[in-house]
Backbone:
């Protein structure tokens, strides 16, 4: 188990080095890896060793950084959805101004 925690620590440190360039998929991979390690820790019979506690403590230091990046991505997606919704509303408004039952007459001079 110590090896899995060490790998999680290395992966977390690696991703944190380029946190501004991370996409949601990268963060999702990290979260899923963390979840599998935590589930394994909860299922096992033996206690967590001091070395494992140290690794987990180090991993925990990156939580705020990862959460902040997730919030940035969430806010960006929220703004994009809002803009799309606004554009769709404007398009519908423009299309609804003209009735299909009307005629347009162009007179040439």
Residues:
């Amino acid at each position: 188990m110590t090896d899995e925690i060490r790998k999680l620590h290395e992966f977390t440190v690696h991703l944190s080095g380029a946190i501004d360039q991370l996409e949601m998929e990268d963060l999702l991979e990290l979260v899923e890896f963390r979840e599998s390690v935590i589930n394994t820790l909860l299922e096992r019979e033996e206690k967590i060793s001091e070395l494992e506690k140290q690794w987990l403590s180090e991993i925990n230091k990156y939580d705020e950084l990862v959460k902040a990046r997730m919030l940035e991505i969430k806010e960006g997606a929220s703004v994009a959805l809002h803009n799309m919704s606004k554009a769709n509303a404007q398009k519908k408004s423009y299309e609804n101004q003209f009735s299909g039952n009307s005629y347009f007459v162009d007179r040439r001079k």
Q: What stands out?
A: The mean pLDDT is 88. The chain has one domain: 2-90.
